Amino acid sequence: MTETDRKRRDRDNILGALASTKGKIFGDDGAAQLLQIPPTTLLSRMKSLGLKK
Questions:
Q1: Whose CA is closest to 21, among 41, 5, 42, 49?
Q2: Count of structural domains, the chain
Q3: Which of 6, 11, 22, 41 has the most crowded Cβ, counting Cβ within 10 A?
Q4: Is residue 51 part of a domain?
Q5: Which of 6, 42, 50 is nearest to 24 (CA)?
Q6: Are the C-beta atoms of residues 31 and 24 closer than 8 Å to each other?
């Protein structure tokens, strides 16, 4: 898998999680919990991929 493929996969996973949680990032029913990563990590990844909250 190339770096471009990995970034595309990460972006798709994050967008899917945000759609599933109606944009919620923090909390038990947030996207970070769904992706099993800390919310601050999710925010950092979103920033690096150019995604807005």
A1: 42
A2: 1
A3: 11
A4: no
A5: 42
A6: yes
